[in-house]
Design goal:
about 270 residues, mainly beta, Porin, 12-stranded antiparallel beta barrel, 2 helices, about 5% helix, globular
Length: about 270
């Protein structure tokens, strides 16, 4: 059997494997996965976080449609609950519109590498009133770049995102943020196409925030950096998947008097149609 036939046979097996059926993405970072042309991905995402006396809960419905084999677009519809000490507030969060384009892909024997760019616009549509405030009063945008390496057993991802935060009517400009993600994954058991599939993940997530400013003057108790070590799992069976993970803070260098993060957790249920 010549080399060409071996490669073709390997690619055929690769296309029938869980790797192709579910191009995995990290739990907290981003990956280059896009929905196939004409496909619809429905996801329900739950998040919980705590920093000092502040708690946040978020439930989000996400719909993603495959415009082409390399280009997808979608919408996020969140519901939020915020608590700051004895005060709490809940209601609709800011609707977000996003698109992702995979501009590079290379397939080889049992291996796929790819890269994509992401754009997300976070609208100013949250319910107003109450304290703590759900309404930030600005439209923000996130621009991201991500790379993914996916084999039958090993995974790795790297991504960078820049969040442009706007200025509200009161003159408050929340500082822009940079998010960095480095992720490794392992499939301990090579399952068949129709079998349940499990990938264990370990992420290193970093966040750098600029100081906020009010009418041109920097606010001292804003901005800084935090790093998290985040174990997680990606479990799939046919067209259904569960992602879950927890972010554990390992380093904090926040400016002034700010509450450091205690934990962040996320669970995502996904369906492909």
């Amino acid at each position: 059997m010549n080399r060409t036939m071996l490669i073709r046979g390997g690619v055929f097996i690769f296309l029938l494997s869980p790797l192709s059926a579910w191009s995995h993405d990290p739990v907290f970072g981003i990956g280059p996965h896009v929905v196939y042309k004409g496909g619809l991905e429905i996801a329900v995402e739950g998040e919980a976080s705590k920093a000092g006396r502040g708690k946040e809960r978020m439930l989000t419905l996400e719909l993603t449609y495959g415009l082409t084999g390399d280009w997808a677009a979608g919408v996020e519809l969140p519901w939020a609950y915020l608590q700051e000490g004895a005060d709490s507030n809940s209601g609709n969060g800011d609707i977000a519109l996003f698109t992702k384009y995979r501009f590079w892909r290379r397939d080889s024997l049992g291996l796929q590498e790819s890269a994509a760019v992401l754009l997300k616009v976070i609208t100013d549509t949250a319910d107003g009133g109450g304290a703590p405030r759900l309404d930030k009063g600005t439209t923000d945008a996130i621009l991201g770049l991500t790379y993914g390496y996916e084999s039958r057993k090993w995974y790795r991802w790297a991504s960078v995102r820049y969040r442009f935060n706007g200025k509200n009517d009161a003159g408050l400009a929340r500082g822009d943020r940079v998010l960095l993600d480095f992720v490794g994954g392992c499939r301990p058991r090579l399952s068949g196409y129709r079998e349940a599939d499990t990938v264990w993940l370990l992420e290193l997530n970093g966040e750098y925030g600029k100081r906020a400013s009010l009418r041109g003057s920097d606010l001292p108790d804003t901005g800084g950096s935090e790093w998290f070590l985040s174990p997680g799992i990606f479990w799939t069976k046919r067209n259904f998947a569960v992602k879950a993970g927890v972010q554990i803070p390992i380093h904090s260098n926040l400016n002034g008097n700010q509450d450091e993060s205690d934990y962040r957790a996320r669970v995502v249920l996904e369906w492909h149609l």
